[in-house]
């Protein structure tokens, strides 16, 4: 009996010992060997960067670096130094491509247009969303297209892309016009009620309501009252998730039952229920109606795609989860970024009244001095050349997207470099769009005429113009967004004149997207039918 006991105990100790040894080996590999291996591969190719310290990498230095604006201190040109000043500081020290570290994670900053071109052309699934950035976004976005990688992302992309072809967008134009007219009436009332016939309006508030209304009706066949709660709760989640600790790569502790995490998961549950109610209502309508009477919007396409796909295990086993996640992603991406793009464009026009008048004159000429309606005539939209260049220039200087990030999921060659699996690439878009070597000495100036002959002639390296992201993961709804911007801006500029309010403080901040910290306040006045 004693011998048997000793044998059992000996076997147990050997098992425990093997587990401990295996755990130590795995820990050493993850904590020491893998980061060193990745850095070695990059450094051997002549790429340098700030020296990391164990175990936090360059996080301490990132937190200590402060903005260093130029002597002019023009708030409309120097604000990008306040966003992530370490990017600019390190670029000056190490060049347009450099290596840095946040804890165990190794990052490659990319500001070299030739390399960006190769990233743009890379269509493999081996270049995906960074997993450590997307994990904290799980409550908000689930496994929707903004977070997913691999085959699940590919499935969602193929499902959505056809719904944003111009032939489909034309069917949404009436909704865009109708929703914009509601905002116009609201602003006219504000102006009329003021004795001086001028109103100070925080425009991004109403523009978000406008784009939310459009996405609700155009893509989900529901009015804004149904989507209002969804947008409100997504906004609360967005604010909670826009913390520097996520970008720095700190350990995600959302699984601990903290007050913040409990609130986040409560919001997630409520948003999921609201989206599911809209989905269930549509399914009931489909059963009650004949097949020929089914709607043909994006929600219907999502329902049919999730029901008919049998190739992906995730979709088959979690059909409702896939539908909810994809809808949440469309709600968020389809409204917020477009509203901000229009907001910043109106600021640019308010700061440059000569361009505001040029756009207004073009609208009057195109629509024969009458209110710009009937946008389904594609030739009308195509004739708005000045407005198009204004939008392109505004997206260059104040595009809603701040970063383009990728995780290298398999060893690959991009340009002249070999990138190892596990490294993360970062593109800081505001800096990229102000690169003097690419855009010229007037890179920080608002000059829409640079786009007179298209993007290809606007700069030396057009592949470095990425307001909608880059590569196969660029924004799928950019045609929808541009069309929406043209229609909304045409109607607003035809009806109103815009000036910057003396109460406006220019302070763009990062909150998952580029936003005005203190609200964008403009003075709005009504213009007569002649555009004066």
TrEMBL record:
Which InterPro entries did the record assign? Cyt_P450, Cyt_P450_CS, Cyt_P450_E_grp-I, Cyt_P450_sf, Cytochrome_P450_Monooxygen
GO-annotated cellular components: membrane
Compartments where found: Membrane
The residues that the entry says bind heme are 475
Key words, A-Z: Heme, Iron, Membrane, Metal-binding, Monooxygenase, Oxidoreductase, Transmembrane, Transmembrane helix
Regions that span the bilayer? 12-33
MF terms from GO for this chain are: heme binding; iron ion binding; monooxygenase activity; oxidoreductase activity, acting on paired donors, with incorporation or reduction of molecular oxygen
Asked if Membrane is a keyword of the record, the answer is: yes
The way it spans or sits in the membrane comes to: Single-pass membrane protein
UniProt xrefs under Gene3D superfamilies: Cytochrome P450
Task: Name what cofactor the protein needs.
Answer: heme
Q: Which PANTHER family match?
A: CYTOCHROME P450 FAMILY MEMBER, CYTOCHROME P450 FAMILY PROTEIN
Family assignment from sequence similarity? Belongs to the cytochrome P450 family.
User: What name is this protein filed under?
Assistant: Cytochrome P450
Q: Which organism is it from?
A: Pisum sativum (Garden pea)
